Amino acid sequence: MDKQQKLVEFGSKGSWSSRVDMDALNEQIAAFNTEGWLVKTVIPNTSFAGTVASYSILFERNG
To answer: C-alpha 43: how far from its chain's center?
Structure first.
């Protein structure tokens, strides 16, 4: 069976805060899980100041 992969970037959309909403991130991951996607890798993406601005998430499922 072939494996399908999907790369998603999840970050803060608000202009007042650069914090990533971890509750919303977990909800998004749970939604992908119900569709059969499993998290393979999570990588934090940092700003020039060194703060986490977003996460790149690699999902995988059997096709």
So the answer is: 8
pLDDT single digits (tens) 6-61 = 999 998 665 556 678 889 899 999 999 999 999 999 999 988 888 888 999 999 99
- Separation of alpha carbons 58 and 14, rounded Å: 23
Question: Which amino acid belongs to residue 61?
Answer: R
- Provide the whole-model pTM: 0.80
- Tokens 């977003």 locate to 54
Whether the CB-CB separation of 18 and 51 falls below 8 Å is answered with: yes
- Work out the number of other CB atoms within 10 angstroms of the CB of residue 58: 15
